[in-house]
Write a structure and sequence with these properties.
This protein has one helix and 13 strands. By secondary structure, the protein is mainly β. The protein has one domain: Sandwich (Immunoglobulin-like), CATH 2.60.40. The strands form three sheets. Strands 2, 6, 7, 8, 10 and 13 form a six-stranded antiparallel β-sheet that branches. A five-stranded antiparallel β-sheet has the order 1-9-5-11-12, with no helix packed on it. Strands 3-4 form a two-stranded antiparallel sheet. β11 and β12 form a beta hairpin. The longest helix has 17 residues. The N and C termini lie far apart (79 Å).
Length: 175
């Protein structure tokens, strides 16, 4: 192989590698995947909960003046193998308790054993005391869904990750 062909091959490979290194612009958060809306007029909710989930958009490190931004994923797992649940509201609040965003405009149905997630980028505006309120219901008695936040960050070769479990605030049951 001649020197000019080697140089061309190196340039082509370098361009391909560099194209793969682009970072997408940050977003304020999105639901992954998009779920079908549930027809509200057809719902007869017999069981449901409001769940509080602590979520940390940043954590302190080194001192009270330094914070590490985190990517937060709220995961809602339908743990019932036979029945769907309906997620009617997901509200994200910042450290001061101010509503940052409502993520569910129309109730969404989560099929048996399915999971949905909301991803909050590090610049999502929550702060070190962010949290979610999730409201769900079901038309038949079901196993409670597992609702938790997963926070991760990476700087250089170091990384941090942890999970925060949801806590039931209110409950509606078929009793």
């Amino acid at each position: 192989m001649t020197l000019s062909l080697r140089i061309c091959a190196i340039i082509i490979v370098s361009v391909i590698v560099l194209m793969g290194c682009q970072t997408p612009p940050p977003s304020k958060g999105s639901i992954i995947p998009t779920l079908p809306p549930a027809p509200v007029t057809d719902l007869d909710i017999v069981m449901g909960q409001t769940v509080f989930v602590p979520a940390y958009a940043e954590v302190f490190y080194g001192s009270a003046d330094e914070t590490l931004p985190l990517t937060t994923t709220l995961a809602i797992h339908n743990s019932d193998p036979s029945n769907a649940i309906v997620v009617s509201s997901v509200r994200y609040y910042n450290t001061e308790g101010v509503l940052v965003r409502e993520y569910v405009e129309t109730p969404i149905q989560l099929k048996p054993m399915a999971t949905t997630a909301i991803v909050i980028e590090p610049q999502g505006g929550g702060g070190w005391g962010a949290n979610f309120l999730v409201e769900w219901g079901a038309q038949t008695p079901v196993y409670e869904p597992v609702i938790e936040a997963v926070m991760v960050s990476r700087q250089g070769t170091e990384g941090v990750s942890f999970i925060s479990e949801g806590r039931v605030l209110t409950e509606k049951s078929s009793d």
